Amino acid sequence: MDQKLKQKLIALAYISPGFITIFIFLIYPLFNTFRYSFFQWDGVGKMNFIAITNYLRLFRDSKFWNAFYANIIYIVFFSFVPTLLGLLVSSIIARADIRGVRTFRTIFFTPQVIASVAVGTIFGWIYAPQFGIVNQILSFIGLESLQKAWLGSASTAPIAVGLIGTWLWSGFCIIIFIAGIQKIDEDLYSTAQLDGANALQQFFNITLPQLKYEIVVVVIMTLIRALSTNVFGIVQAATGGAFNTRPISLYAYQLAFIQHEIGYASTIVVILAVIVFAISGVSMKIGERE
Question: If we measure between CA atoms, which residue out of 279, 234, 18 comes closest to residue 120?
Answer without folding.
Answer: 234
